[in-house]
Amino acid sequence: MRPLLSLCLGLAFQLTQPVAHAQNMTTLALHQAAAGNNSHRIQQLLQNGGASAIDARDAQGRTPLLVATQSNQVAAAKALIEAGADVNAKDNIEDSPYLYAGARGHQEILQMALSHGADLRSTNRYGGTALIPAAERGHVETVRTLINAGVDVNHVNRLGWTALMEAIILSDGGPRHQQILQLLIDAKADVNLADKEGVTPLAHARQRGYSAMVEMLTAAGAR
């Protein structure tokens, strides 16, 4: 019985090898097409048996959609999202297409992600929502979009900072961050929510000499 069993196992292994190889090649091809913004190739691959690999991961844990998002390849992202790619699938460092698009201000991909099931409560490796890095990096329209989508404006990340706090602490205090601060104030962000050391947004703005922000915060009731 043992020789027969070994023979059967060997044959099964040989039969599965071509299938596994084909799947790996499709996965590689999808990632390459995503990186190259080749939407036609993506559609071709998905129609020819590659649908099961739509959320397959590379060595960094990235799906084809995340690869496309990281390079802001809108056509590729559109083809993948419309085919059902998971906009919330995270890689090895907890980036997802939705979170990355928000953090980097990739508006077109972000809008598509929001209309295809983006998890507004999902967080990155710092424990922050998409809104927090968007505010830090000065992406005014992205901040507006995420606020309108319903992202919690008072979410606190692992550093102890909200989007409003990062718009002050990690900014140059210039016009873009002033606009973002006003958007957050208008969205009822808590202007008195202090950091882990008990330092308030107003105190941080004063320490940095951001006079315009100080005026905005004071007008909103900051102490």
Automatic annotation (TrEMBL):
Signal peptide range in chain numbering: 1-22
Show the InterPro entries listed in the entry.
Ankyrin_rpt, Ankyrin_rpt-contain_sf
Q: Which residues form a coiled coil?
A: none
The question of whether Transferase is a record keyword is answered with no
* Record carries keyword Hydrolase: no
Q: Where are the ANK repeats?
A: 60-92, 93-125, 126-158, 197-223
The record's keywords, sorted A to Z, are: ANK repeat, Repeat, Signal
Q: Which Pfam families match?
A: Ank_2
Membrane-spanning intervals of the chain: none
**What is the superkingdom listed in this entry's lineage?**
Bacteria
Q: What is this protein called?
A: Ankyrin repeat domain-containing protein
